[in-house]
């Protein structure tokens, strides 16, 4: 089961979530970090959250593109800073993330959802290559 951390929860509070799932005899749990609300229309990422949640005995995935969102930032839709996605992805891998969740599109501006934060597919190959190198260094 993949559980995205609520953007209103602290990483430590995910222990309650994990315990409830385990109480239902499910040990197959992945936790996803995607930022924390910081005022209005802003998410911030505390990379120490990855290690905090890993200590709960679950792999942690970092949601790269949703972490760049600015919820409600465009008034009727969410804004975003897609240019920050590669920076956050590399930081998450360096901080120990077990995986990355990245939404991509051939023409992000035309995406029906999350157009401001979705990453151009053309960025993906280079980003994954660099992240793999970082992974090897950190885990090596």
UniProtKB/TrEMBL annotation:
It catalyses: D-arabinose 5-phosphate + phosphoenolpyruvate + H2O = 3-deoxy-alpha-D-manno-2-octulosonate-8-phosphate + phosphate. GO terms for molecular function: 3-deoxy-8-phosphooctulonate synthase activity. One of its GO terms (cellular component) is cytoplasm. Residues 2-134 form the DAHP synthetase I/KDSA domain. SUPFAM superfamilies: Aldolase. Its EC number is 2.5.1.55. Keywords: Cytoplasm, Transferase. Transmembrane segments: none annotated. Pfam families: DAHP_synth_1. InterPro entries: Aldolase_TIM (IPR013785), DAHP1/KDSA (IPR006218), KDO8P_synthase (IPR006269). It is found in: Cytoplasm. Belongs to the KdsA family. This is 3-deoxy-8-phosphooctulonate synthase. It comes from marine sediment metagenome.
């Amino acid at each position: 089961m993949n559980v995205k951390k609520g953007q209103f929860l602290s990483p430590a509070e995910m222990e309650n979530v994990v315990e409830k799932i385990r109480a239902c005899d499910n040990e197959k749990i992945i936790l996803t970090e995607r930022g924390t609300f910081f005022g209005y229309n802003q998410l911030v990422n505390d990379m120490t959250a990855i290690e905090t949640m890993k200590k709960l005995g679950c792999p942690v995935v970092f949601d790269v593109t949703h972490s760049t969102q600015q919820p409600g930032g465009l008034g009727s839709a969410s804004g975003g800073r897609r240019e920050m996605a590669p920076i956050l992805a590399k930081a998450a891998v360096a901080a120990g993330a077990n995986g990355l969740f990245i939404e991509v599109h051939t023409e992000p501006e035309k995406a029906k959802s999350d157009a401001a934060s979705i990453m151009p597919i053309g960025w993906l190959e280079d980003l994954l290559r660099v992240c793999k190198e970082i992974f090897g260094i950190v885990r090596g």
